[in-house]
Design goal:
single chain, alpha/beta, 7-stranded parallel sheet, 9 helices, 42% helix, binds adenosine-5'-triphosphate, binds magnesium ion
């Protein structure tokens, strides 16, 4: 469980590749943080607006805690607003659209950490060069951007593809590869589509919960003191 009162962190969930789970993970991480009692701001930086739709579905269902969520289809507004408002929250999670956009570049300047979901497939891994290059570019203008790659939509079981992908990811020196992955599970898609946290699904999928919570710890653990209740 994360403690209240720890300092602010801005997390961008980004990849120039589309459909890798950026919105799903942004939303589920934001809900998990909010359910742990933290003041979270989910920022939708993708004109598609999927993260803010998920937050609205949650609010419409009166599911507590209701997430603070703002959508900024315009990169300049995204930059100005996050710079001005971030300190009012303990955690800010920015979902960035899948392409090399101005919003992505802005998010890489604002964020303390960028989480890069990647599918364990050759074409997706080769495409990582683009986001790794943007991370290096951002680092040339600012200090301390932590860049974490995580395998999402992994094959169930002990697939060779998952292991091969993890090994191939190590070639991207700009990125730290997380030692956990998220399997392709209906629970992840269903929870986000219904505006629910992964632990709120009924019936709950314990493996999905465990994977999401492992990701949460790895992304936030260095900053927050974790304790088990
Ligand atoms: N671990 C997972 N298990 C099952 N389905 C998943 C998982 N992660 C994402 N999905 C599904 O994959 C699809 C793409 O996910 P999502 O929209 O989060 O990707 P994205 O990177 O935000 O895409 P875009 O680039 O279009 O913004 C969605 O249908 C989502 O429900
Ligand atoms: Mg998305």
């Amino acid at each position: 469980m994360l403690r209240r009162g720890d300092s602010e962190m801005i997390l961008a969930v980004a990849n120039t590749k589309g459909g890798v789970g950026k919105t799903t993970l942004s939303f589920l991480l934001a809900v998990a943080l909010a359910r742990a009692g933290r003041d979270v701001w989910l920022v939708d930086g993708d004109p598609q607006g999927s993260a803010s739709i998920a937050a609205t579905v949650r609010a419409d269902a009166s599911r507590e805690p209701i997430l603070a969520c703002s959508a900024f289809p315009d990169a300049r507004a995204l930059g100005i607003q996050v710079r001005k408002q971030a300190s009012k929250f303990q955690d800010v999670v920015i979902d960035v659209g899948g392409r090399d956009t101005e919003a992505l570049r802005v998010a890489l300047v604002l964020a303390d950490t960028v989480l890069i979901p990647v599918q364990p497939r050759g074409l997706d891994i080769w495409a990582l060069g683009a986001i790794a290059g943007l991370v290096e570019g951002a680092r040339a203008t600012r200090d301390g951007l932590r860049a974490l790659a995580v395998i999402n939509l992994a094959d169930p079981g002990t697939s060779a593809d998952n292991g091969d992908a993890a090994a191939a990811l190590a070639d991207f020196k700009a990125l730290e590869v997380l030692g956990t992955y998220l399997v392709r599970r209906k629970a992840f898609a269903a929870a986000a589509a219904h505006g629910m946290g992964i632990d709120e699904l009924s019936p709950c999928d314990p493996k999905a919960s465990q994977e999401l919570n492992a990701l949460l710890s790895m992304v936030f653990d260095h900053q927050y003191h974790m304790r088990t209740l």
